[in-house]
Amino acid sequence: MLKYFPLPCAIVDIETTGGNVTYDRITEIGIIEVTEDGVKEWSTLINPRAHIPEGIQLLTGITNDMVNAAPYFEQVAKEILLRLQGKLFVAHNVRFDYGFIRNEFARLTYTFKSKLMCTVRLSRFLYPDQDGHSLEKIITRHQIYVTHRHRALDDAKATYKFMAIAEEEKGEAAIKEALKHQYRKESMPAQFDANLIDELPNAPGVYYFWGENKELLYIGKSVNIRKRVLSHFTADHKSSREMKICQQTRNITFDKTTGELSALILESRKVKELQPIYNRKLRRVSTFYSIQLEEGSDGILKPQICAISEMPLSRQKLYGLFPSNKKAKHAIQSLCDEYSLCYHVCGLEKPGSRACSSYQLRKCKGYCVGKQLALQHNVKLLDSLGALALKTWPYNGPVSITEQDASGQQKHLVIDNWCVIGVADSLDEISELLNQKLNPQIDRDTYRYLVTAVFSKDNAVVIRPIRGSL
Ligand SMILES: [Zn+2]
Fold it and tell me: How far is the CA of 327 from the centre of ligand 1 (A)?
């Protein structure tokens, strides 16, 4: 009996001639009804009016001969309906079973509808740290005894047992929370095989969303591939772009990495190489714009926008990394308004005999009309840019960061002046990398990650200077 799941419910499993909900047909159905009065089991083979492929016969043990002698769906439709009607429809990957049953009813011009619960999602919610939530994995994990794997009633029984085990292990509050999560609106597309998500690892790496005709839609990275991919499908969509990606996705693939930084490096490389449709343009750019200060004739400091494709080695101060010249100019404009700076000095207007337009709006303190000293303006300007200042590389040369995945595999990431020089599999390879005079390109995500790693107090990332460098 079930204690915390809503009753009555029907735990359903079907076997089919294949995985296509439109063309393939049901060969067997098993239903476990759980009501206040107790538990009833029922199953029947069904004649699919179609050939069962060899591989599926081997998998299920259901042969063409067996189903030839079985009733057609319409002959058992009423029986099935009586067992399912008015009950919560539960299945492992419920969209599959529900989709097939709905289609069989639709062929009889009947619209079957039910409230659904998916035990794949249930397992994912209650056991988030486990790797994989296929029925096979769940059976092994919870040591569920099954007589005949891939026969409908036996698989339904396994699902039922899993629900009972989850109740025991997790308790009422967790089950209620899981149910709430189930009923939350989600936008998993109908054409999408939910099993794909089952196969994603709880590990760092890069994931790829593929559309119709194997067209690459999007590349993303995460410290936890599965969690991140799921969030694409379950989050309330922030943009129509994200909605579009989800609706068009037909397949998801992934590359595991040893850690977050290598995921970042791989993502950046793959985006540039494969140019997915929906990755924002700025992630493809390899030239950034920054702001530097130039000293004018009377000692006035003027912000200048400069393009950079690699981190300058000089110790000259740079402020901000912007994906375009326009974005850099916008940043200067807002700093001007916020800190009452002069438009003439900041290059937003050509200096002339008249005051800048900011002065006319009583914001600029009047450097342009000789009412403010260069020094006063300089102090304000430096103050305004302070937060944008790019950090100076605090080492005396290249460093390595070693990542290790759950299986113990290691990668050494070689970094100099905030740029990734390369990835080495062994310590020997590090010196090889340093000997090839590479031209490391700047990458905003990598820069941000490294700044956090270098300056954060917790030592989650170990940074080792290479070759006598400090
Ligand atoms: Zn002015």
Answer: 22
Residue type, 156: A
Same domain, residue pair 451 and 330: no
139 and 213, same domain (yes or no): no
Q: Establish if 128 belongs to a structural domain.
A: yes
Who wins on pLDDT, 353 or 132? 132
What would the mean pLDDT of 45-62 be, rounded to a whole number?
A: 94
**If you measure from the C-alpha of residue 336 to the centroid of ligand 1, how many angstroms do you get, rounded to a whole number?**
10
Task: Report the alpha-carbon distance of residue 54 to residue 196 in Å, rounded.
Answer: 24
DSSP 13-36: EEEESSS-TTT--EEEEEEEEEET
User: What's the structural domain count of the chain?
Assistant: 4
Give residue 348 CA to ligand 1 midpoint distance, Å: 10
What spacing in Å lies between the alpha carbon of 361 and ligand 1's midpoint? 10
Asked, for residue 189, whether it belongs to a domain, the answer is: no
Q: What is the mean pLDDT of residues 162-180?
A: 94
Q: For residue 279, how many other CB atoms are within 10 A of its CB?
A: 20
Report how far ligand 1's centroid is from the alpha carbon of 205 (Å).
Answer: 50
Average pLDDT over all residues of the chain: 87
The rounded Å distance from CA 340 to ligand 1 centre is 9
Q: What is the pLDDT of residues 190-228, one digit of tens each?
A: 556 666 776 788 899 999 999 888 899 999 999 999 888
Measure 303 CA to ligand 1 centroid, in angstroms: 14
